[in-house]
Amino acid sequence: MAMISEWLKIDEERVVQGLQEAGQRLDSIEGEVALDFSSVRRLDATALKAMEEFAGIADDKSVRVVLRAVHVAVYKVLKLVKLTSRFSFVN
Length: 91
Hints:
Blueprint: E1 4-9, H1 15-25, E2 31-36, H2 45-60, E3 64-68, H3 72-80, E4 88-90
Parallel strand pairs: 1-2, 2-3, 3-4
């Protein structure tokens, strides 16, 4: 299987909507998808639920999810709720 990578920017004001849109696009992605989190400085409970659902969809479709430019505070929240193992992280 060829490695196809798609980059999607996630906006802090629309994290849930961005993740839902990215989840819908996973049908056409093979390999990996990279989500740019550089503008996201915090996650609320709804966004965390959307992250968990997105990770599940990606797992089902065997798509690797890479989170790019994740702020330390966001990483700590993901670590606290045990979601870090479901993603790869790059700067």
